[in-house]
Amino acid sequence: RLAAEMLARMGNMMAVPDLVERLSDEDASVRAAATAALADLGAKAVFHKIILGLDDPDDLVREETLASLPKLGIDSSPDLVRNLERLLKYKNVKISSHAAVVLMYLGETKTAKSFLLRLLKSKFVEKRLTALDAIGHIAGNMVEKFPIKVNLILAALNDESPLVRREAIRVLIVLKETSDLDPLLTSLADEDAGVKKYASEILKQAWPKSRAGIVRILDEMNQRSIDAALDAIPPGAPDALDVLRGYIQREVSNIWYLRTLVNSLDDSGKVVALMAATLLHREKLSEERLIKAVGLFGNRRALDIVRKTLNSGDTSTRAAALEALETLGDPVITKEVLPILDRGGVFTLDKEQKMDVQIVIGGLLESEDYWLRAISARAALELELMNFIPVIRKMKSDPNPLVKQAVKDVLAGMNGGARMKTLRTLSTLDRILLMREIPMFSRLSPEDLEKIAEVAVEQLFSSKSFICHEGEHGDSLFIIVHGQVSVLKKTENDQTTLAIRRDGEFVGEMAILESPSIRSATLQAATDVRMLVLDGESFKAILRDRPEVAISVLQHMSRRVRDLNELVGAAG
Predict the structure, then answer these.
(1) What is the pTM for the complete model shown?
(2) Alpha carbon 534 to chain centroid distance?
(3) What is the third-level CATH fold of 437-571?
(4) Where are the domains of the chain?
(5) Measured between alpha carbons, how far is 232 from 240 in angstroms, rounded to an integer?
(6) Which strand (E) or helix (H) includes residue 530?
(7) Could you report the per-residue pLDDT of 162-195, keeping only the tens digit for each?
(8) Closest of 142, 141, 69 to residue 99, by C-alpha
């Protein structure tokens, strides 16, 4: 297989006879590699040999054969069209979707287009992904532009699945399609980091055509889009520097404003503490964007390292990063930026003024940030600021469900209603407040906490009751909010207690991280226990999409393994 790939890269046409022989190799991967190599060499003369791969017993060879046809520049013929239409009914949708895309390439669009549309509108994510993958695979093998209506791909940018949205943008990159930039500019605000990354990449390729849209996002200070918009600007682009200077000034003002808000809050209450943490997280994001913007004036790669180093809690490391920033960045710009980033050095500005908490809450209730609207509404209740009832009542029609629920809770509390928070009535924000008390989640961003809270279910277990049994199937992670849980392991005649887990700890993680999902121990409530239960598949999806969550879980699991090793060592 590797030999076939190397021969293709060398462009040696003398290798064609040997590659044709490899089309009959007993190893399917060798047959597929030989097919791809012949296509790369443009061996159209042996097309009659290559086309036999459409009936190969292995689907990998069929797929590679289909992908080779556009690269060979094959013309349409009745026999070829019949063969491809036959494959539209093939059991493997990956093969049938590739066949449909090749038919479109050949100009036989009627049947092929309707077939692809059915896949793209399927209720199954896998089928929608397969259709887009086929388009990208075939288009990537073509020398000339692929004859497909781009609206088929653009429609997938609104798909409910982030995986589909990512794949749609990846295909647009392969197609080099930038005729309609508005959907791509909208994708810069996507909740999925992968979608944003791909959208930034294609918009950067489209610069300066994309300039007007990027400038609009920076001017509007759209918090959901700014970071990705900065990634879409080519470093050193002369027509972006004035715009960046204006943006940097606005971002500096934004950071001072956020710091003033934080300094104005007394975080003695849980909700106000969450509000302060949210504002600090927003400040951190603003700082990172600020460094990224400065990097577009100079050595962006070096300044990326500076940006990451600034997040270090170590004072000396942060000071070294600031010195590097002063050296690497634009002198005029860094003079403005350094005072805001240096918290306690020669660049420190005068002490920030505090604001009255009434003004803070009033301003945040009208924030464009839905998180801040929701938390400030709950904070008004915690701080007993009854004068905000009329404002909060008007927020009942807020478009965001988190805000709506927060308003509902606040109005019930302010009107004296002692709403019983049972298992079924705990809101997302209530669960977030609970999770912030758990070490594994305490440092996560509000958005990460929200994702977890949305799939978490609260459960109560009475003392001595069993939560799960060793050997049974399980796919849930249990987070202990209050209470104690015994971890029990079967022995020859009895069972032994491996550990006692308490408030803030998690149990059952091995069942969702291993496959097959078999419980390795029995969990029993040692006291009355209140838990948050996370479904395995939902939690795995969060781990894939949210690296910060995955790192936090790994850190706590590493600590768990170390503790067990010490326990075993002590017993030995």
Answers:
(1) 0.74
(2) 19
(3) Jelly Rolls (2.60.120)
(4) 1-57, 238-341, 366-419, 437-571
(5) 11
(6) strand 529-535
(7) 899 999 999 888 888 788 899 999 999 998 888 9
(8) 69
